Amino acid sequence: MLASFELAGHVIGLIINRDLTGETVDEIIAECDKKIRNFDSLNIFIELERGHEVTLKGLLKGINYKYSNSDYFDKIAIVTDSRSFQIAVDLSDTFLDVETRTYELKDRLEALQWISL
Fold first, then answer.
1. Of 9, 29, 92, 107, which residue is least crowded by CB atoms under 10 Å?
2. 9-31: per-residue pLDDT in tens?
3. What is the Cβ-side half-sphere exposure of residue 105, based on CA atoms within 13 angstroms?
4. How many H-runs (helices) and E-runs (strands) does the chain carry?
5. Which CATH architecture has domain 2-116?
6. What is the CA radius of gyration of the chain?
7. pLDDT tens for each residue of 58-104
8. Bridge-partner residues for 81, per DSSP?
9. Are 115 and 77 in contact (CB under 8 A)?
10. pLDDT in tens, 39-71
């Protein structure tokens, strides 16, 4: 299940309680596309709950979307205990002008505070 919430108008909050597959990324993209129409730039908070992983297809689809739409994103916070997902996010953002930070689940409040500014 993908749960979404708003912290502020320009901030999308998403909590994912299943593996991050290509289909899940399609749902995230749909949420982002709805907001892109209304704001010049977005901040995104994505939390992948404990015990869930990212498929290669999901990772590649997410990276492609992020690169194709990077002009619309200001900050992205990824909250997960999946070390491989954190490393993949950090590596994929090397060439983007989007401020991205990864957090462990225990630090979700810090991530929420940072993404809300």
1. 9
2. 889 999 999 999 999 999 999 98
3. 14
4. 4, 5
5. 2-Layer Sandwich (3.30)
6. 13
7. 989 988 998 898 899 999 999 999 888 888 888 776 767 788 899 99
8. none
9. yes
10. 888 999 999 999 998 999 998 998 899 889 889
